[in-house]
Design brief:
322 residues; Peroxisomal Thiolase, Chain A, domain 1; five-stranded mixed beta sheet; four-stranded mixed beta sheet
Length: 322
């Protein structure tokens, strides 16, 4: 039987855009459609909004440095860098040059390469993951784990996700308030902290156009979410009651109450982490995980469940042992 090495999360960090706007401010600027009172009932209070396109890279840099510090690693110890962004423009480093030649070459100014150079990750191979919506970071981690599992000369992989909505873009998507943020995770061979136990993904290209099929997405969200979580638990021979904590995304809190009931996990297992920060595209569950680690909110050996849905569409669930 093929030996699969133990791989865990030796470093976890996340950051939010520093500028904060309360729901009433967002409404006054025409950036949300629902009334602030309605969104507040859903658990939202504010959005963190980047002030510049350059913030995509800067937030990624900040999160990456913090994750390396958490893992107690030097940059030259990283063997692999995986950049992850759901938004296509977030993969490109902005340019201040205005010319036709610049328009052509701007598409090749990759954020991943800039981050490698800025951090001094001289030994790392570099790649990027996209087109997974809010599940993009999950896919980045899955890819990195596969590489660490099959290439024994690699020990540490740094995965970084960062997304910023375009300036002036609406801050409400399907009744969720959207914030800008970034996260970073170091996966390490032989690390038993937040050990990777199981992963499950269900993808359906039918929902490739989220605007045209918004109603169908909302109708299928819980059904497919329940399926992916049940299949994950079955693959790991874990019962719903064995889950110690569920780390939520920042989406509508009421939706999490429903999901917990559907998968038969007790309601008190939903992790109550940092105060409302809205829903970032990729960083939500890693904001929660970083908070949990910093505050010692889970005992060693606790089973942690992470779930997310991403436009495209993909439903993903990840099981960790803390």
């Amino acid at each position: 039987m093929e030996h699969i090495p133990v791989i865990g999360m030796s470093g976890v960090a996340a950051v939010l855009a520093p500028a904060q706007f309360e729901l009433e401010q967002l409404a006054a600027s025409g950036l949300i459609e629902s009334a602030p009172a309605v969104l507040r009932q859903f658990g939202f209070a504010r959005a963190h909004v980047a002030s510049s396109p350059f913030d995509t890279g800067e937030m990624a840099l900040q999160a990456a440095r913090a994750a390396l510090q958490d893992a107690e690693l030097q940059p030259d110890e990283v063997d692999l860098l995986v950049w992850a962004s759901a938004r296509p423009e977030s993969h490109v480093r902005p340019s201040n040059t205005d010319s036709r030649a610049s328009e052509l070459f701007d598409g090749f100014r990759y954020q991943a390469a800039w981050l490698q150079e800025t951090l001094g990750l001289d030994r790392a191979d570099v790649l990027a993951v996209s087109q997974q919506g809010c599940s993009t970071m999950f896919s980045a981690l899955r890819t990195a784990r596969a590489i660490l599992s099959t290439e024994p000369d690699r020990t540490h992989a740094l995965c970084v996700a960062s997304d910023v909505l375009p300036a002036g873009a609406p801050r409400e998507i399907l009744y969720n308030v959207i914030s800008d943020g970034a996260c970073a995770v170091v996966l390490t061979r032989g690390c038993t902290t937040d050990r990777w136990c199981a992963f499950r993904q269900i993808s359906s290209g039918y929902y490739w156009d989220p605007m045209a099929r918004a109603s169908e997405i909302m109708a299928s969200y819980f059904v497919t979410g329940r399926q992916v979580i049940q299949e994950l638990l079955a693959s790991a021979n874990v019962r719903p009651g064995d889950i110690d904590l569920v780390l939520p995304t920042g989406v509508n809190r009421m939706s999490w109450d429903v999901m917990m009931q559907l998968v038969d996990i007790p309601a008190d297992r939903l992790y109550d982490g940092p105060e409302s920060f809205g829903h970032t595209i990729s960083a939500d569950t890693f904001i929660q995980l970083a908070h949990l680690r910093q505050n010692g909110d889970a005992a060693a050996g606790s089973k942690l469940l992470m779930f997310t849905y991403g436009f495209g569409s993909s439903w993903c669930a990840l099981l960790l042992e803390h």
